[in-house]
Amino acid sequence: MNIKGIHHVSAITANAKKNYDFYTNVLGMRLVKKTVNQDDNSMYHLFYADEKGSPGTDLTFFEIPRAGTTYSGTHSISTTSLRVKDDRALEYWKERFDQFGVDQDPIKEVLNRKTLSFRDPEGQRLTLVSDGNNEGVAPGVAWDQSPVPQQAGINGLGPVHLTVADAAPTANVLIDILGFRKVGTIDNRIVFETGEGGTGAEVHVEVNPELPRERPGRGSVHHVAFRVEDEAELAKWEDKIRGAGFPNSGLVDRFYFKSLYFREPNHILFELATDGPGFATDEDENHLGESLALPPFLEHKRQQIESELVPLDTSNKQN
């Protein structure tokens, strides 16, 4: 049993069209799946990733049109990192963000890596992280049809940043239950890694007891998922998590992967997700995300689902 790294991060948007425009046209990520929230079919669920939708590269969004403002604080996944090839790529992004008027901070070094923090139009807190010094989990492959040059493109998820009032309960789950290793601290941030380590396998836990509890809304993160090999291993994790006394979802079939959900003591939602079968299960790899994809158990409701969604054109004109 081994957590391999970050699988995906799921966040909230209030406007799927504007979200799609920003993440594909400005960030140059590939939409690899346009589907619906399986627990509430009235909302889109959009998956952005590398060229193939590889595990460890997915940033996903639930559309909740009436989502209010996020008031940041503790008990939260407060920043999501996106990997780029090297320091030179960050210089490209600094200029690109200036061009598109993206709210950004100066490039700075954190844990021997150059980083560039920025916000999307809804205030989603994001950081580009250079893989120039990475020696851990390999990245994905940036999309070669992106408006961003492939050598500067986003190729995966980097460290996930949690903010809590008390680190001990979260650290206990990461280490004692999930098998992460504590590898260091910087300021008020504790760094944990798993599997091969490196940029794609870290969780950073910031301790700030003076902050209020976060009130999530548009621009907030819903959950983080960690990678497990397959369904057989996921079943073992279910036994371990239940044995530790944590209520959990049991195995959930998301069709593109199998999942298990539970909340750690600081109320942050963790998911364990299998690497496969993947997003090409029901679509040709060259045409991922171009039409509304529904898993077989929702296909009989397609007409109803489509009638309740605001049309969203995601066709790739280059194909």
From TrEMBL:
Coiled coil: none annotated. CDD domains: PcpA_C_like. PANTHER family: RING-CLEAVING DIOXYGENASE MHQA-RELATED, RING-CLEAVING DIOXYGENASE MHQE-RELATED. It comes from Halobacillus naozhouensis. It comes from the Bacteria. This is Ring-cleaving dioxygenase. Keywords: Dioxygenase, Oxidoreductase. Residues 5-131, 156-275 form the VOC domain. Pfam families: Glyoxalase. PROSITE patterns: VOC (PS51819). SUPFAM superfamilies: Glyoxalase/Bleomycin resistance protein/Dihydroxybiphenyl dioxygenase. One of its GO terms (molecular function) is dioxygenase activity.
